Amino acid sequence: MASVQMHALRLFREQGYSATTVEQIAEAAEISPSTFFRYFSTKEDVMINDNYDPLLIAAFEDQPAGLSPIQAVRAAINAGISEMSTDELDVMRQRDELIGRVPELRAANLKNMIQTIELMAGMLAKRTGRSSDDLEIRTLAGAIVGVNTSIMLYCAEHREFDFAERMDKALSFLEAGLPLQNIE
């Protein structure tokens, strides 16, 4: 899957997203179009889907019980990012930049965000002993996914900023209750 995504990303950069076909991606990855569709439902999915959710779940479940839900999410995300190579982080940033620029990918990312909220709600519910459809669980899950999305887009536009550092700072801000002060 990662190889197909790398070829797709390269072709999207070289030719543009709209001009690149599934057939071209499959050819570059040395697979058939039918094999492509075994991994990805649509052309958009090749940029939206990744293998990070199972890693996040495992890292989250490994966090000590004494941590608050947000602290556990922060620690899990930090653990996951620290295990990524520089190349993986660069590919993630390139994908995020593309998602930010291409309307079809932004729309597909919305669908992915909804799935991620469901995933996050399940993780938080399991940790807290609540139901995944509990209003507070769903609100927190949505807030965490919103923080991730805002930092993803911000760092895609500002390459000089470190994603892990910004994500941790933003989750800390969320954990503190979003204490936004007026600038005078």
Automatic annotation (TrEMBL):
Name used for this protein in its record: TetR family transcriptional regulator
A Pfam cross-reference name: TetR_N
Protein's organism: Paenibacillus donghaensis
Keywords linked to the UniProt accession: DNA-binding, Transcription, Transcription regulation
SUPFAM superfamilies reported in the protein's UniProt record: Homeodomain-like
A single MF term (Gene Ontology): DNA-binding transcription factor activity
UniProt domain HTH tetR-type: residue ranges: 1-58
InterPro entries xrefs: Homeodomain-like_sf, HTH-type_TetR-like_transc_reg, HTH_TetR, MftR_C
Keyword Transcription among record annotations: yes
Domain of life assignment: Bacteria
DNA-binding region positions on the chain: 21-40
